[in-house]
Amino acid sequence: MDCLFCKIAAGQIPSNKVYEDDQFLVFHDIQPAAPTHVLIIPKKHIATMNDVAAEDLAMIGEMHKVAQNAAKKLGISESGYRLINNCGPDSGQAVYHIHYHLLGGAKLGALTGISESHA
């Protein structure tokens, strides 16, 4: 498989890990968009949120718990954080392996949901 995040999860590509267990990996984004910016990935390859199957729903719930724990470990749970999943090309998804961006560490700007072409 030629998936970047599968290679990171397998240890073939190094990452700055925050947390790892048998199902998930949390690591620092190499192009941070906030003072704290980590990626939360399942080790199971699922390309997009649209590809999550019924048997994956419990894992997605656990992924949210991993996000909560990562925010606590990184010291941003009380001040606030943003949890983002991009799904598909119009969202800006760059790696087709489901993942969450966990951002915080500063007051983040408002998200309007309006693209520049529709503003």
From TrEMBL:
Motif Histidine triad motif, per the record, lies over 97-101
Query: Cross-referenced CDD domains, in alphabetical order?
Result: PKCI_related (cd01276)
Quote the SUPFAM superfamilies the UniProt record gives: HIT-like
* Catalytic residues (UniProt): H99 (tele-amp-histidine intermediate)
Q: Which Pfam families match?
A: DcpS_C (PF11969)
Chain ranges of the HIT domain: 4-113
Molecular function in Gene Ontology: catalytic activity
Q: What is this protein called?
A: Histidine triad nucleotide-binding protein
What is the protein's species of origin? Paenibacillus zeisoli
**What are the leading ranks of the lineage?**
Bacteria, Bacillati, Bacillota, Bacilli, Bacillales
